Amino acid sequence: MLSSKADLARYPFTPEAVEYVNSLGVEIDDFASQDYLPVIDRAERRVEEALIDGVVGWSSPLNYDVEILSFPLAMVLVASIDDPFLKRRYALAESKRAYNLLRNEVRDERLVRIAEKAFNWKIKPTSFVAGQVYDFTLRLDDYLKNAVAFHDSSWKLVNRLVSRGEVYLKRDEVARLLSEEINRHVYRRLEAAKRPTLSPLLAYREERLKQLNAKRREKIRGDELPTTAVTAAYPPCIRHIHDLVMAGQNISHIGRFALTSFLLRIGVDPETVVKMFSDATDFDEKKTRYQVEHIAGLRGGGTRYTPPNCNTLRTHGICPGEDEICKKIRHPLSYYKVKLRQIRTQQ
Q1: pTM here?
Q2: 209-219: per-residue pLDDT in tens?
């Protein structure tokens, strides 16, 4: 059971933490007071860490109440800004923070408690040994709904030990699956939240975060790509996939292939493409580098791959919607060429 304030501060997304916050009777209007300045500072810092570092930090705070209250307040600030990129980025950063804490838990019952109470998992400790030691068993459907987001072959069911509808897992693997559940949980809460009316004190912090978010997005779309790539000329499908990747979200194999092959074809170097995927939750540098270099024609048979055409992308649900140029072309690279000519003509 999560009974101490230290536990609630570590895992503020749990029902126990929500219940504790409700018991304090703190309302959004209360944050107009300077008395809550430490909480406001920490809430702002949580969002800053998500944007800049990609993970919310943890360092055994002296005031656990500040840490506990700062989570829902940070959620309020993110919901108020109401930017899809920031919502995805913040949800991912909180899930990474939770993963770093969960994988270092020494008490099995704490992981089980979080999994059961927060997400209704059917999970049990075990000490089963079959060539290697396993720490837990997890119901098959709970495993599948989270492992589907991971692209590494080790997560495929054919590569797992399964018996009587239960998957055998190590502690780090359970922490990893829980972090994916937390990512979705935080994002759903942000999506469902209504935009609040903020006090002047909070509105000032919101404006600072809004400016930081805009700068971060501009950096992602511009500075991290070489000048040979004109991001303003990206077709809607590529821009959508790129934004998801830069927010640290997992995307499908066809989405990764489309984005990678497109960027390589328009002049982005393989090293930059590898770096672009580094915020993804299932990032493996060695495997990513091999895949990117294979698509670039630097490995294997030397074939340089071309992105799928528009019909293929629509079939796989990757097209977010057409614009006027899309109606006249059949391939993302054709879109890029047309849009690039328009941009240069207007300069």
Answers
A1: 0.71
A2: 999 998 887 76
